Task: structure prediction
Amino acid sequence: MLDNILSILIFFPALAAMFGFVVAKDSIRAYGVTVAAIEFALSLFLWYAYDPAVSGMQFMESLPLIPAFGISYLLGVDGISLFIIVLAAFFTLIGIASLPDMKRMKDMILTLLFLQMTMIGVFAALDAIVFYVFWELSLVPMLYIIGAWGGPLRIYASVKFFLYTFTGSLVMLVGMLFMAYFYHQATGTWSFSILEWYRLILPENIQLWLFVAFFLGFAIKVPMFPFHTWLPYAHGQAPTIGSVILAAILLKMGTYAFVRFSLPLFPDASVFFMMPIAVLAIIMIIYTAMVAYAQEDIKQVVAYSSVSHMGVIILGTFALNVEGISGSVFLMIAHGVVSGALFLLVGVIYERRHTKMMSEFGGLASVMPHYATIFGVMVMASVGLPLTINFVGEFLSLLGFYQQSHMMTLLAGIAIIVGAIYMLAAFKKVFFGEVTNEKNRNLPDVNKRELVALIPLVIIAIWLGVYPKPVLGPINNSVESIVQLMHEKAVTEEAKARIPDLTSTIVINEAKEETK
Amino acid sequence: METYLYIALFAPLVGSLFAGLFGARPKTIIAGLVPTGLLFASLVSSTILLTHVLAGNTVHVELMTWMETGDLYIPFGFVVDQVSVTMMMVVTIVSTVVHVYSIGYMDHDKGFNRFFSYLSAFVFSMMVLVMSDNFAGLFIGWEGVGLCSWLLIGFWYHKESATWAANEAFIMNRIADLGMLIGIFLIYWNTGSLQYDQVFAAVAGLEISTVVWIGIFLFIGAMGKSAQFPLHTWLADAMEGPTPVSALIHAATMVTAGVYLVVRANPIYDIIPEVGTVIASLGAFVAMFAASMALVNRDMKRIIAYSTLSQLGYMFVAAGLGAYWVALFHLMAHAFFKALLFLGAGNVMHAMSDELDPFKMGGLSKKMKGTFIMMTVASVALAGIYPLAGFFSKDMILEVAFVEHHYILYTVLLLTAGLTAFYSFRLIALIFHGEERYKLFGFDPHEAYKYMLWFMAPLAVLAVIAGMMFKGTYYDMVTQLLPAGEYHVHSAFTYWVMTIGTQIFVGLAIVYAYRKYENAKIDKKVESGFFYQLLFNQYYIPQFYEEFFVKPYRDLSMIFWKHIDLKVVDATVDMIGNTFYKTGKETHVMQNGNLSTMLRWMVAGLVFLLVSAIVFAKANDIFAYMVTIVPGLGA
Result:
């Protein structure tokens, strides 16, 4: 079973969804929860079986698809993808378990199961074409979720989401084809395997062009400023479950792809574009945080806050050292947990009042104390308070980038100020003050179904904040191997200097040990 | 000893979680008693650790790893040494008293259980702050106390002013925390560690400019927590919280965290005396600046808050001039008498149905004898009258400034000492003496519960004896870790002139305050004067911040959203989309299947192609011709 666990993880939900079409409507929730629970258990088993001491790919599977062009069904996980896969399985589970009653419930659950297939496929794929297929397939269920269950502007929002990200991805596909072509030129054989590509050393000017092509696809997905405007619409119109999955998992595809493709394939280009990207990241952090502050709709606050946090992740990724990249990968998980939880929480209030305008609320802390407490914990996690999950990622990302640029980090650090401003302001508007709106006076507090989703998230947000080691350790090992690979592949002097050589530091550390 | 360390540290956390279990329920007395009991256990453990440290030992434990990646290694490590044990004693003593006091004070409050949960959580964070053995652990506590401060200032969350003040405090502290974070990054990338012992060992070998930057950024962090100018406005607004909170957090413990940081990082600041001088100058400025605002304020709690600010300034003068042990000593003494003063003020507030204007009180000494005595003791101590605690700690700072030849600082501090005495006794005179003006406003004051007064008594005793009794022992203990330095004026004559002079000066200020305010006469002419208005409006700084930071930020955010994000960034995207869409829509008639239309287009296309062929050919000819008439153009 271990040999094929990744394939099982990918195709089990899809297969179950096929069977789901014949399940009775009344039992579809139970069916969906069971499938998602099995899937989550499998992902936990994957984590259990994963050897944290190994930095390379594990559970590899390979099956030639189009041998003439070197396209194969190639899967594997390392510390970077492992936890996002677990997170995807986890969010699908709690998403289905806490799904409120809605029209066409069955379609929704089956769509979610298909979506799960594509998500896990993206993070497990090691062949560029397979990766691309899952990457694009993931758009379809999300398009359907927004378009079928969304708000009044759902068609506009879903089409925008689809076309915008699709356009970026096509450029990325061209980049992939060129990459394979260059590989063919250099070695005489065709291959789309990322691991094979890692071994190829490209001249700097080619790296720059390919980097830009990949960048466009990833940046729209992240989304990076100024490609972010599809996100507020998508979140604004999507049903709660759609926003949760979108924020927690789908956005991570972009940042994950930066770590998986851009950095190791194009180390010199990464160094070349480090500062421009850092500038974009800082604009993302400060500008979108200010936009978030101006919002009147609580869901939009969370949506823009996502963009702001993604800025920190990008910054950490382009720190190009172990501290920064580990931090950014950790922050991907952290942001998934926290923003997912915040969207769930917004859903709780939306379901009761069918509005998300903050001016409609006020004084909820006395009406719904448990809800206010959980929201408060997540706000503090989002603000990045130490001992919550976000702090670890944010701290390491910024710490990492500090090695590259002092001033840029100082500017990016404004994240901790502006983040507090919009979050606390929103929290104050919704929860503090007197209850002024009669409709809010008798709102019921969170119910059991909602707690099933929220309590585990609260536990994770604090547990991984206090003790991040189980996740940070494997991430660290895999990141170290990427950084070392980048250092060795780099052709320019500047890149060699910017990307640390880990072997030399190990020698220094050993020397330190000896002198002790 | 490790067991005691863990009890001292984690007992408040357990208490907080216990009270938290009852959080949303109506008042449960056990939710107050259990945290208090656990805190007492923490106090006892701290005392045992103190005796251990006095015997010349320290305790250092490492609980577990926190973060580990790349070369970074941060454990949860805790150290009980001479400095941290002093802080631990201050924190546990004051918070135990405040906990017991709060059982009475919060008696009728709906949020009784929640209050104790927050209060104990604060104590835990504060203990983490002072006991951590590395800068990251310090930062955990640093942000933790910030969170608890936010929760407790905004405790009465239905009040707009309270929640506003809570957010202001949090955000202003965050600004400073960024400085602190940058300081931590600098330390890590230059020394490769965040552990105190390793950093302090490595710091001597660094370039001086790097150390200067580290010192500056760490101090920016300290400025936020300790509310130094220009990040001071949150402290006065923080008085919106319940009074026990003001006593514990905004007087005795949290606001002194900045001083603790400078004292703890003394090996860094020792290398950079220039930065130290700046710190001391800023401290002296804040001491006087805050005291001046306290002179005219008509809000009892704000007066005490400004007094706290002023005393924090004193501590920074000492710390900045390298007299770390003096700073820490004043921190300790100040914690006792200032907490006492606040708790007394809490009694008065309760008696007066939360009235804060001392001009509406007067003559309360008859009704509230116990409170009157304790607040007077605290004020005498604050004024620095022999033999109370303030004399030994505060006058010592004056001597430090004098001995270090910072005569300007000395003069400022001396004047401030006069101001301090004046505003303290202005308050006492207004509240407790003179006519019983409260009758006019229909108040019916009553003394607080007996046990509250009894539990305030230890603070009163400490305020009296802390200077006399502990100074020697304290000095011997902390100078094992901090740089020793006896700050004695060399000539005995000068010393006596200075000491007696200061005492007389302060005494005169007290007498003047009494004479002036015993009858609560309001001098209309003075009140309409420029200086009075300037001071009363806090130098217009809050208004300035509102006008020049808060409003522009709000407006700019609005512009970013409505005008840039929607109208520029998003509109561009839509424009590109619409261009394709419209082009398709407009041109689809070309292929409507009508033969004559299509033939027409075919002709049009043919003409277009022919014309372009000719144009290109001609253009080429012209180009070739130009090349012949202007030689070298084409090359």
